[in-house]
Amino acid sequence: MTKLNMIYEGKAKQLYTTEDDTKLIIHYKDDATAFNGVKKASIEHKGELNNAITTLIFKQLIQAGIPTHYIETLNERDQLCHKVDIIPLEVIVRNIIAGSMAKRLAILEGTVAPRPIYELCYKNDDLGDPLINEDHALALNVVREDELAEIKRLTLRINEELKKLFDTINIKLVDFKLEFGKLPDGTIVLADEISPDTCRLWDKDTNQKLDKDRFRRDLGQVEDAYQEILKRLKEHYA
Which of 97, 128, 193, 227 is least surrounded by CB atoms within 10 angstroms? Predict the structure, then answer.
């Protein structure tokens, strides 16, 4: 499949058309951002690592019956995916309270949630991706009620699959964010990526952070953390 015209560039990825108008190539960059783009840097090999990590995780989710946009990995930085209409919602699951929720509600970071916490944000850079509820999403007219129900159903299934997956490599799945899109026939599928950019991942024995918080919080060794996640995944799933 040939990479043709770039049609979108985000904080960490670029999208390219192909000779098949139902498929796109996603190119993973080394750029890193935090706090809605306020903090920026380039992390060597991050694009390659996130591409490889997302590939392994999406393959496991597909085996578990989760519909995704993923087709195949073309090279170290590029994936071929089905073209979807992205639903402008960021879906967040919190198994352990950390980050913005810990700060916003003054809950001690590391507190285990009594059950998975399901959150929605409206993906709008100008508004700072505000936290919303399902009624807000319907009022925004970005999704139907039946689609919201399907997104929640898939999200909770994905959470269970990811918790099992990461548990096998001695990692706590603290929280993560997802994006969903619609195929031309209306089918809702998991899109975007699943990587240390989009998940909080802590070592089960030490609580060492092995995710983007190392960049957000100036902890250093960002590439090493991503390499560690990839190494553990490859040992079990490659």
Answer: 128
Kindly report, residue by residue over 89-135, the tens digit of the pLDDT: 999 999 999 999 999 999 999 999 999 999 999 999 899 999 999 99
What values do phi and psi take at 109, rounded to 5? -60, 135
* Closest C-alpha to 46, from 238, 177, 225, 233: 225
Cβ atoms within 10 Å, residue 168: 12
Distance, CA of 6 to CA of 91 (rounded, Å) = 26
**How is residue 142 written in tokens?**
């970005």
Instruction: Report residue 99: phi and psi, to 5°.
Output: 60, -135
- Where is 186: in which H helix or E strand? none
Nearest to residue 143, comparing CAs of 89, 69, 84? 89
Is this prediction's pTM over 0.85?
Answer: yes
- Taking the C-alpha atoms of residue 12 and residue 151, their distance in angstroms, rounded to an integer, is 24
Q: CA 209 to CA 186: how far, in whole Å?
A: 38
Q: Given its phi and psi angles, is residue 90 left (phi above 0), alpha (psi -120 to 50 degrees) or beta? A: beta
Query: 147: which residues sit within 8 A by CB, 6+ positions away?
Result: 87, 182, 188
| Letter string b/e over residues 86-99, b meaning 16 or more CB atoms within 10 A of that residue's CB | ebebbbbbbbbbbb
Rounded distance between C-alpha atoms, residue 117 and residue 5, angstroms: 39
Q: Which of 237, 189, 223 is nearest to 55 (CA)?
A: 237
| Dihedral angle of Cα 104, 157, 69, 122, to the nearest 10 degrees | -30
